[in-house]
């Protein structure tokens, strides 16, 4: 379900490439942080008979943000599971209609998740993140007071990014069909990926 470049469309977009590079940097650096924290945790536990009580919690929060931030980009790259039995057996207009029938409920669902996710995150503005408070108190002597809101807000942020990818993908497919091009179902080389 990825958008690929065609002769009629641009294959490079500076804004999208900035977004893609930022997402890749976030993915790599956050995974590095998780790996380092877990290595230190294992070393502390088995070599020094001590434990970092905040390590597992902090890694969980980073993993939550990774999941929700990267799901839109994974959709764009065609890395989510898709079932397409029709492929090139139907004409492009029918294929576009089927994509609309499939995408519309997903977009509505994402909208409801965004709204309820935001409302849920706002409920936790008064509760602080224990792991961050523990680390900050150890370093400075005073709690950081960073609210749990910043963990829960990952849900509406990530779903918003995924919704944007869904809408733009459908708009690009509609444009291709309207201009006589076919929508693309096969993965393309990385350098040929169209923006969103």
Written overview of the protein:
It is a multi-pass membrane protein. This is TRAP transporter small permease protein. Keywords: Cell inner membrane, Cell membrane, Membrane, Transmembrane, Transmembrane helix, Transport. Its main location: membrane. The protein is built from six helices and no strands. The protein has 196 residues and is mainly α. It has one domain (14-192). Helix 2 packs parallel to helix 6 and helix 3 packs antiparallel against helix 6. The longest helix is centred in the N-terminal third of the chain and has 34 residues, at 14-47.
Order of helices and strands: HHHHHH
Number of helices: 6
Structural class: mainly alpha
Net shape: elongated
- Helix share bin: 55-70%
Rg result: 21 Å
**Uncertain runs:** 1-11, 186-196
Number of individual domains: 1
Give the beta-strand count. 0
Give the integer mean of the pLDDT values: 81
Q: Strand fraction band? A: under 5%
Our measurement of the CA-to-CA distance between the termini, rounded to an integer number of angstroms, reads: 11 Å
Query: Largest sheet, if any?
Result: none
